[in-house]
Write a structure and sequence with these properties.
Length: 199
């Protein structure tokens, strides 16, 4: 009888550990921007392109960790490329791009080289991080400007974050990097922006 109870207890413990697989989460990414408004040296339009270089699912933002992280993805409601395209178009509009112009449009490309949300593996999930690596390329008047931008954040947590927490954190990380990009004097010069006003 005692052996049976020990076996049943061991089976229960093993079952609880092996079953600790975090469910997939889906979050909404914010398309709004708070980048500065600006004035162009020459009025012109912009052709925008976002290229996702990651080689994974278009809506995959990373993994939630746990016992089987490959089965616990963090997903976006729509493809990451679509959200970043909307944000890029809105930012360029704030800077003065758009409408008919006497000159050829500037070409602006954003490459998503890395977008990784990742938490630790194991039964207890309490360490998570976000790494985003983007590259901007501006082609204007026969000149090409290219520059990488990166953000890395890590947090220690009491437990695996809920969807609302991850949604706020991921959007905050994107916005922090975004504001850094569009306040970069080198990028603004390449775009032909001669003055910006913070919003």
């Amino acid at each position: 009888m005692r052996k049976l109870m020990i076996a049943m207890t061991a089976a229960a413990i093993f079952g609880s550990l092996s079953g600790c697989v975090l469910a997939p989460q889906t979050i909404a990414l914010n398309e709004n921007v708070s980048t500065p408004s600006g004035q162009l040296q020459t009025r012109r339009d912009a052709l925008v392109r976002v290229v996702d270089e990651r080689g994974i699912g278009a809506d995959v933002l990373g993994t939630r960790g746990g016992r089987a992280p490959e089965n616990s993805p963090l997903l976006s409601e729509q493809p990451l490329k679509n959200t970043l395209t909307e944000k890029l178009q809105a930012s360029l509009k704030n800077l003065g791009f758009g409408g008919p112009a006497p000159v050829e449009p500037v070409k602006v490309q954003m490459n998503v080289n890395r977008f990784s949300y990742q938490c630790n593996e194991g039964v207890v999930v309490n360490e998570c991080g976000i790494t985003i690596e983007l590259a901007m390329t501006v082609m204007s008047d026969g000149k090409t400007f290219s520059k990488p931008y990166r953000i890395n954040q890590e947090r220690s947590l009491a437990a695996s974050p809920v969807a609302e927490y991850n949604e706020e954190w991921v959007n905050d990380a994107i916005d922090t990097l975004w504001n850094h990009i569009f306040s970069d004097p080198e990028l603004l010069q390449a775009l032909g922006v001669k003055g910006v006003v913070a919003q």
